[in-house]
Design a protein that fits this description.
alpha/beta, 7-stranded mixed β-sheet
Amino acid sequence: MTRTLVVMLKEPHPGRVKTRLGQDIGMIPAAWWFRHQALRLVRRVQDPRWQLVLAVSPDGIGVKSRVWPMQIARMPQGRGNLGNRMARVFAMDRPGPMCIIGADIPGIERTHIARAFRALGPSDAVFGPAPDGGYWLIGLKRMRAFSPQIFKDVRWSTKHALADTVATLPYARIAYVDTLHDVDKACDLRMTPPGVRVT
């Protein structure tokens, strides 16, 4: 069985990435944090048990970027909100289950990813919840089995994001794995491993 893990990435330009964090600590330190956090995460989640793909934004710059490891496959995220972009990723013509993660979750380890793929054995979808009501991971066993309404009317960046997404999958068998923190504000940086803290 071919498993695919997709990491959603933005080019780490000040003012274009982690802007809420940037309001607290400055746009340049926020972009620096994201760049180093994302590179550490990409290295950490590479594993022979799944194929790694980077979904990059902006499309043109991201596909050619030298920031991310050149040996890893890339695809453009395309336009639209997060739901539009994730639906496009899930629509890739790849066999087997697929999981998508963000790059701003310092605690992700290979064991978390492996657990999510195992959960897709008996389940149709898997989520890794975040404490703020969102989620750091979503996985689907087969995208073709789901309605194009997936991600419709999800209130992104709110405490309703996970519940809204689950509501778009009314007949799916859903599993949940570990709850992990993402980094949106300066107070979230205490969850960050020491090597990527902003000082």
